[in-house]
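Let's study a protein:

___
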Amino acid sequence: MHHMAILVTDKLPMFELGCALEVFSLPKQEISPWYKCDVISFDSSTLTTSTGLQLSAIETDELLHYDRLLIPGWDTQSKKIKLSLAEQIVAFHGLNKPIITFCSGAFLPAQLGLLNNLKATTHWRYAEEFKQRFPLVEYVDNVLYTQNQNISCSAGSTAALDLSIEIVRQDFGHEVANVIARRLVLSPHRTGGQAQFVETPIVHKHHRFAKTLDWAIKKLHTVLKVDDLAKHANMSRRSFDRHFKASVGMPPKEWLNQQRIRLAKDLLEHDRISMDELASKVGFDNTVTLRFNFHKFVGISPSEYQQQFFQG
């Protein structure tokens, strides 16, 4: 069981806190052991959220008995950190225990110098302020989240769910992560990737393309072309490309390659498989194309991924 501290402060963002509680704190009876979460505060046992609601938390001055720390938000205008909190977070980090931040929460470890020389992100609204205040941090634009050493940072709002599901996947595997995504009524149609190993299982199904997306996922073992998807949707290729990108948020070829990589990751987690066989099973016509796309969306090679996440 992973014992998690969810650190809250006055005027905390309610949505990000809700994401943390929904994914990590809400019991999952069919998945055991699950996370054990405590909502804690170094300030007071009674706090007021950004919406004016009052919240009761466990007042404490100690973190080190927890396995991981989640910071759903932080006051971006604050230049001061309570000494006991600063000391505990630095000591927690020194033990190589995971620290997770949502949105403005990245400001706290950045103020403590824990993100120096590491990649990090936060909500785009705070990007310029973050870069100005923390020039030693390698700020990354236009990503859902970053993961470096033992610190993970998500961008704003719903990216907190993307990072949360990725953490579940790392802790419990791809199948459990998809169970949680389905509970949240999120589609596992997209597994996005960036150079710093950013990934998300989320793209909301658009009703216009839902049947075509489902059909394509069942056909990933074949060498599907975008023309095949357009034909299934009863659209011209030009019209399909335009409407698909507007609805799903990316070109159809990119979406198709992401789904192949999602399937490849699942196979690598559960089977000892050659690269030739893997390429064939996920619909790439050769291993060069497989490796190129795997590195593009995941940030590491297929063999490195299997070394880290094989569950067989």
Q: What stands out?
A: Residues 252-270 form the longest helix (19 residues).
